[in-house]
Amino acid sequence: MKAVVFTQYGSPEVLQVKQVAKPTPKDNEILLRIKATAVNSGEVRLRKADPFAVRFLFGLTKPKINILGVVFSGEVESIGKDVKTFKIGDEVFGHTDMSFGTYAEYKCMRENGSIALKPAHISHKEAAVIPFGGTTALHFIKKANIKQGQKVLIVGASGAVGTAAIQLAKYFGAVVTGVCSTANIALLKSIGADEVIDYTKEDFSENGKTYDVIFDAVKTIPIFRSLKSLNKKGTLILSAGMAKEMFQGLWISKTTNIKVLSGLIKHNAEDILFLKQLIEDGNLKPIIDRTYTLEQMKEAHTYVEKGHKKGNVAIEI
Ligand SMILES: NC(=O)c1ccc[n+]([C@@H]2O[C@H](COP(=O)([O-])OP(=O)(O)OC[C@H]3O[C@@H](n4cnc5c(N)ncnc54)[C@H](OP(=O)(O)O)[C@@H]3O)[C@@H](O)[C@H]2O)c1
To answer: Which of 38, 127, 183, 214 is 20 to 30 A removed from 290 (C-alpha atoms)?
Structure first.
């Protein structure tokens, strides 16, 4: 099968299209024929080993994982003998978590992984871009226990996590303000933001308004600035936080009434089913900025690495 392989950390040039062995499903696995995936900010970090700590998890001198990609939409091509949940021909979408491997034509997944039937009315590339931002936003919004009428500010609202966070926070009844640049104001309004702050013209931490929850999806501003705009018993979500922010967050949570949420997300099939239902009910829309092919993976990574994508970058296979 065709796959995008990387055997060393580095620039997008390390991503090479190659023929590799097609996987065979174990007894409890399904074999997916992948029709679409996406390039996410996390894969860019892993490819570059940035921050350095990536190497402690994924290989000190070279990556232990050689095919990147965590989201997929496609068709079940074959199943192991014990599989009960899915059948050959099912159209499914989901998230591989740490097993990666969706920059490829085929991938095996445990049947009880983060997989659900694809919503019938959307395309494979639309389904593939949902799980990354969707599971991240859902994980933190559930932990923050966002409720009807709460005021929520989302920073980095035009990215993969941010566009999902706006839609999910709205679904849970919040009054949502998104922070983005001028070019993305219309996008944020189109997915339900009640108010939009253009960060090129206004510093939200200086306007005197406060929020119950601040969801910083891209970590472009220091924590102390967010705290200025957070209610005294508010919740600060730092989904893009690294070790430093996690320690700062622990300290703030211990010494004040503010709750700081960070760390790696967790997800399961129920979460993907929940996102599927939101899509089917019209409460969650896939946002696609650009679409590339497997052969154009270097270009796709180069674009995502710039940090200015609007929603998601899809890959059609
Ligand atoms: N905790 C976890 O387990 C977990 C899971 C998934 C992702 N993450 C992390 O989440 C982070 C971001 O994810 P993502 O995929 O949503 O990123 P992304 O899609 O690359 O986000 C880019 C967006 O951020 C906006 N942006 C840039 N600077 C900004 C600023 N100063 N203020 C407001 N918006 C700004 C850009 O808009 P403009 O160009 O218009 O500025 C662009 O639309 C990554 O660091 C990733 O590692 C963590």
So the answer is: 214
Instruction: Measure the CA–CA gap between 194 and 161, rounded to whole angstroms.
Output: 18
Atom of ligand 1 nearest to the CA of 262: 1
Q: Mind listing the pLDDT tens digit for each residue in 187-219?
A: 999 999 999 999 999 999 999 999 999 999 998
* Encoded amino acid at 308, one letter: H
Instruction: Pinpoint the alpha helices (H) of 59-208.
Output: 124-128, 130-144, 160-171, 185-190
Q: Find out whether the beta carbon of 180 lies less than 6 Å from any atom of ligand 1.
A: yes
- Tell me which residue has its CA closest to atom 47 in ligand 1: 42
State the pairing for strand pair 91-95/71-79: antiparallel
Pick the CATH number of 2-129+286-316 from 3.40.50.2300, 3.90.180.10, 3.40.50.410, 3.30.390.50: 3.90.180.10
Count of alpha carbons within 13 angstroms of residue 72, beta-carbon side: 33
Kindly tell me the burial class for residue 68, based on how many C-beta atoms sit within 10 Å of its own C-beta (0-12, 13-18, 19 or more): buried
98-148 pLDDT, tens per residue? 999 999 999 999 999 999 999 999 999 999 999 999 999 999 999 999 999
Residues of the chain with CATH 3.40.50.720: 133-261
Task: Count helices and strands (H / E) in the chain.
Answer: 10, 15
Ligand 1 in contact with 158 (CB < 6 A)?
yes
Q: Which residue from 39, 40, 41, 130 has its CB within 8 A of the most atoms of ligand 1, so it is best to mutate?
A: 41
Phi-psi sector, 116: left (phi>0), alpha (psi -120 to 50), beta: beta
Q: Determine whether the shortest distance from the Cβ of 134 to ligand 1 is under 6 A.
A: no
CATH class, range 133-261: alpha beta
**Does residue 240's CB lie within 6 angstroms of at least one atom of ligand 1?**
yes
